[in-house]
Amino acid sequence: MAALLTRLGLSTGVRKVIQRWGPRRYLSSKLTEKWVNTPVRASKCLLGREDERSKVLMIYTGGTIGMASSNKGLMPLEGFLEDKIMNMEDISGNPKMPMVDILRWEELLDSSNMDSNGWAKLARQIEKYYLDYDGFVILHGTDTMAYSASALSFMFENLGKPVILTGSQIPLSEVYNDARRNLLVSLIFAGMSEIPEVCIFFETRLFRGNRSKKVDSQGLAAFDSPNFPPLATLRNDIRIRQDLIRPQPHRKLKIHTKVTNDIAVLHLVPGFDDTFIHQMAQSNLEGVVLHLYGTGNAPSMKASLIQAIERIRDDGTPVVAVSQCLRGSVDMGYYKVGRKLLDLGVLNGGDMTIEAACTKLGNILSRNLPKELFISAMKNSLRGEVSAPDDMINSKTHNPFTTLHDGDLEWRRL
Asked: Cα–Cα distances in Å, from 68 out to 37, 72, 74, 138, 175?
């Protein structure tokens, strides 16, 4: 890591001058968060602009990255992560790293407790300080990070600055850890205005947030983007795929924080009992995500399954189909059952991840769009979360930019 930072011009020989200044802390009663202002300096010299210094807001929500050993095992300790960050020689006093402010949630969350309220809180915090910073880093637990990244991508309309989620498998408090690199490189990316997306950085790769999945519960390369290439890769330098980055918006940032939570995911398993599906059809669901086999297949001999889905659709509840496969896309016209589901009005989710499908469905449902606009919003890409049909054959080499904008939905709804 030290060798890489040296190649990037980030010297590791900086003295701990920050200890002399010390942190300034105060409790904001309105937000119930804690602020830690650090005199960490940075410039965009990596992009050849040494006359301009970037500012990054780091929002600490919880997760393994900030935990430390105690007599009760690993747990977050008051002020521990903030002090560790402010005393990192690669950050403190280094003129080539961003100026950093840390906004700590008063109640740190295990990521399994993150929900739509937490996503909305993050979106509102970024909106509030949007004009004060060049980018944002969110420290987050890994288990639901892909869900949060997907949800935030749909909440932000006209996002023009990087929002980088990161965390670690091993706490920063351990001598051997993956937290240090994830933290430092996320700060570098957050200082680059050329990446106006919600992303996840982990180990050596920067992913589009709504294309990401956690694929390893213990390995350091815990995340992947199965159907879309990484936006950037860390080697002996940083290689950014500018051709994959979404274009800068031309309108003001707007957030959509409402999320419909009454959504069920039906993951098909061979030999499953249909009884609970019929019970689900009788509940007051707002939406259903079908997790189908392969390209969108389901058991053709289970007529009761089709009947249950038909009943759900008759009630006007939208159903979106995605594949259980890690890679590839749903093509519901390929098999007989898939065609029947299409006839019932089940929407083709293409190559969306289950995380993106669920969070997008919840976001779009909350906007109360007319049926035609709802279908258009779900079938088309809003934030680069799904490939255009022609690109699904080889999404590793294509760049399907957004084909539908939030503004189109608002204008047409009028």
From this structure: 22, 10, 5, 19, 11
Question: Does residue 244 carry a pLDDT above 60?
Answer: yes
SS3 377: helix
CA–CA dist 352, 364 (Å, integer):
15
Q: pTM to 2 decimals?
A: 0.85
The SS3 assignment for 75 reads strand
Cα 383 from Cα 413, distance rounded (Å): 20
Catalytic residue among 61, 64, 166, 317: 64
**Beta strand extents in 21-162 (DSSP E only):** 24-28, 33-37, 55-60, 67-68, 75-76, 99-105, 135-139, 156-157
48-105 pLDDT, tens digit per residue, is: 334 467 999 999 999 999 998 888 888 888 888 999 888 888 887 788 899 899 999 9
Distances (CA, A) of 356 to 18, 124, 332, 381: 41, 20, 19, 11
Based on the residue annotation, tell me whether 353 is a catalytic residue of this protein: no
